[in-house]
């Protein structure tokens, strides 16, 4: 049985993946942890979040399959770079390989203007959200993508203009990878088109140990 760890995006919770998980092959064990319950939010940054996720994954006694969306995809790339032997395969969704600084700065300006209650759904405060985004400004995986050796599927919504070209670049740079588009979906493919998202994940995982895809 393969162990599949789904890493949700910023602004999402594990519940946002429910419709996808319900359609995934039952022969796999699927887990979707709440990222922000893993970390001490008083010290929240990308590095502390990555360390907490690393500790979470260390309890598994077999290589895992990582499925990450947006922030979750960046964490999956980070983990795969730090622990290549612990990752069986990757599914990277709507990921920037280099953080768009201008967009993050604009996003933080918007967060400053939003009421604090807007962040209650994801169990974060406005201050924590802004701090996390600030800590991600300088992330850049341009030189690390070619070092990822495991089979990788890169997905992006057909309407996700902000990340489409980045996903194409990721699929070209990772040696053993391919790209697929999810139609009728923007950034949150798991919510916009859960059926197609699950279909592509199942197809990728169902291949003979992902050889020769």
From TrEMBL:
Keywords tagged on the record: Hydrolase
GO cellular component: membrane
Molecular function GO labels: hydrolase activity
InterPro entries registered for this protein in UniProt: AB_hydrolase_1, AB_hydrolase_fold, AB_hydrolase_sf
Domain of life assignment: Bacteria
Start and end residues of each AB hydrolase-1 domain: 4-111
Gene3D superfamilies linked to this entry: alpha/beta hydrolase (3.40.50.1820)
Pfam families: Abhydrolase_1
Protein name: AB hydrolase-1 domain-containing protein
Biological source species: Ileibacterium valens
């Amino acid at each position: 049985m393969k162990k599949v760890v789904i890493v949700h995006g910023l602004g999402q919770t594990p519940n946002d993946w429910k419709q996808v998980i319900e359609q995934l092959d039952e022969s796999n064990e699927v887990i979707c942890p709440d990222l922000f319950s893993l970390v001490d939010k008083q010290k929240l940054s990308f590095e502390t979040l990555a360390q907490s996720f690393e500790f979470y994954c260390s309890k598994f006694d077999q290589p895992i399959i990582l499925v990450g969306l947006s922030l979750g995809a960046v964490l999956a790339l980070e983990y795969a770079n730090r622990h290549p032997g612990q990752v069986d395969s990757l599914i990277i969704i709507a990921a920037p390989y280099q953080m768009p600084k201008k967009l993050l700065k604009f996003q933080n300006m918007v967060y400053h203007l939003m009421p604090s209650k807007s962040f209650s759904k994801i169990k974060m405060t406005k201050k924590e959200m802004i701090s996390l985004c600030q800590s991600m400004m300088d992330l850049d995986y341009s030189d690390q993508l070619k070092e990822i050796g495991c089979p990788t599927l890169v997905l992006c919504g057909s309407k996700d203009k902000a990340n489409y070209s980045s996903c194409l670049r990721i699929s070209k740079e990772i040696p053993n990878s391919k790209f697929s588009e999810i139609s009728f979906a923007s950034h949150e493919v798991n919510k916009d088109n859960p059926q197609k998202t699950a279909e592509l994940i199942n197809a990728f995982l169902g291949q003979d140990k992902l050889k020769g895809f």
